[in-house]
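Session log. Operator J.P. requested a structure for one protein chain; no other inputs attached. Running the standard single-chain path with C-alpha cell output.
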Amino acid sequence: MTVVALIGIVAGCRGWQGDVYLRHRFPASRAAKEATYRFGLPGEPWREVRKEKDVQVAWINAGAMITIHAQCADQGDSSLVQYTDHLAMDWTDWKIVTQTPETMIGRDALRTTVDAELDGVPRRNEFVIVKKNGCLFDLQYSASPDAFEAGRAAFGRVVAGFRFPVEG
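Structure written below.
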C-alpha cells in the first residue's frame, strides 16, 4: 500500500458532505486553517458547486450563488465591519444598503447588504460575518438586483442552520 493511499484511509473523506463541512486533517498547514461546521441547505432548485476558489461550500441557481468560507488562522483581530469592508476588494461601486448587527452561534455577527459591480455586472450581495473560537466565517448570497429577493429565503435557510463548533 502506498503512503498516499494510507494517508487517504487515515484522513477519511473530508470536506463538504451533505450539510456539514469537515475540516481536512492533512496537511497540518491546511488543518490549522479550517473548521468543521454545519449549515442549513438551500433546497431546490439550488445546485452544489464544487472546487470554487476560496470557498468551501457553494450553491448556484439561475445566476445567483450562496457560499460559505471559514478561516481559522491568519485573519487577525479586526472588527466585523472591517472584515466586511475587506470583502469589497474584488468589487467596484460598493454601496452598503443595510448593515445590521445580530447574534449567531452565540456570538455577535454582522449582516450587510451591498450593491456592487463585478467586472461591470451589477450584483446585490448579502454577507453574514461571525467570529468564534479563533475562526472567521463568512456566508454570502449574491444575485442580480432584480432576482435578489427570490433567493433570500434559501440563503436564510443556510444561515439559520449554521452551527459551530461541531464534532467531526
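Operator note: Residues 1-12 have pLDDT under 50 and may be disordered.
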